[in-house]
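2.7 Reproducibility. Because tokenized structures are sensitive to small changes in the input, we list the exact sequence used for FAD-dependent monooxygenase, including any N-terminal residues retained from the expression construct. No trimming or masking was applied before prediction.
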Amino acid sequence: MRSDVLIVGAGPTGLVLALWLTRLGVKVHIVDKAAESGTTSRALAVQARTLELYQQLDLSEAVIQGGLHVPGVNLWVKGEKATRLPLEAIGTDLTPFPFMHVFPQDEHERLLVERLAQLGVDVQRQTELLGFSDDAGRVLARLRTSDGSEQQWEASYIAGCDGARSLVREITGTGFPGGTYRQVFYAADVEAEGPSMDGELHIDLDDADFLAVFPMAGSGRARLIGTVRDERDDDAESITFDDISDRAITHLKVKIHKVHWFSTYRVHHRVTEHFRKGRAFLLGDAAHIHSPVGGQGMNTGIGDAINLAWKLASVLNGCAPDSLLDSYETERIGFARKLVSTTDRVFSFVTAEGRIADLVRTRIAPMLIPTVARSDAAREFLFRTVSQITLNYRGSPLSQGASGHVHGGDRLPWAVAGYEDNFASLSLMDWQVHVYGTVQPELADFCKTLGLTLNVFDWQREYQAAGLTQNVVYLLRPDTYVAMVDQTGIWEMLDRYFASRKLKPLGRLRP
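Resulting structure tokens (single pass, no recycling of outputs):
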């Protein structure tokens, strides 16, 4: 009845955390109240940065094959398409995955569960966390199992991936400040036809109701996500698809043939005050929740899991002090707060009421958006933001140095020179060094002694175009973010980086 980490909640966040830790030799126990993986889902979008990070788990190809990539976003006004934003044309030089990818959360969860089972770890279903204590250098949790009996479980750390109503968060007392949108949201999986059923994302800017049509894998399938008019807010449970279907048909010309699933729900905008308290951590919806605008929620939770996983593995394997775990909150809470603020502003714009709001949304915005869409810089900024490839940890105590546009804490720029893809080495779940150009022999010797993988790339103009600098040393963390940028190229800088933080590569533990 003991594991290194007890994970509460088997959604995508908890499952990715379990996968990462298991791959690094950490013993995990993952529990969930549900009897099975989700059979319906609201989360759809898998962003480019998530697909990049999934390469470490050998998941990217399976997610791509199981879903549908979205090459463009279309904005509609008064029943007509106002403008189109071509995603593929923007991101081709930025990422191996220059698109928004649709892969429903229920299918996503099943894939993660299967991969975890292949590693010998099964989710303990119909198991509820009743409480836990954090003392004497351990976590002692009480679990209620499927037969109603109670079970004591001991772990070094507990990870709360248990959603917006997180019991782990409640017990840690870290609060959940924020608010609740007054609008009622709905989601519906449908079979339909019409100009909006062309495999792209379509968003309606009319009125004060939000409406988006997401393409789904399979001919004529789509997910409708929208808000319901205020006069029915107080009676959300009585809303049926008939209450909203006319609007979808009228505004986005979607002719519905069959409804497979329909649900209404409320959305909050909240961020907990602390992501870590002692030996307890909060991830995903347990730590932050916001409107579905931009398709960021599930991706942010997965990002939390990957950020925390390598740090837990490092501490548990004796490769880092416990203080390394403090950087999880430092790095993730700022992004969560910014994300909640950004999605709140966007959602407030698309749902604002009144004559002026309608004028801005239906007259001014359609004139401005095409102009913005023609600007390469504006399109690239939008793609980088939504895809999460701009997310960085520059303010982290783990980040050091800069050269050109690349700073410690940044995502490593992607570049392909000839047949050489600099992201190929990032499948390694450990610290590593990249040098684009020539490397000093003493540095190479030091990397070998420390157990650091050294990747040397012959200097090419493609690397310069991507923002990389010749002969500079880029130290990469196990989650592939740049830890240190050093222009001197001397081995002593690497030595000081690891020694000052009391860190060791994980590879030194493996034979």
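The mean pLDDT is 89.
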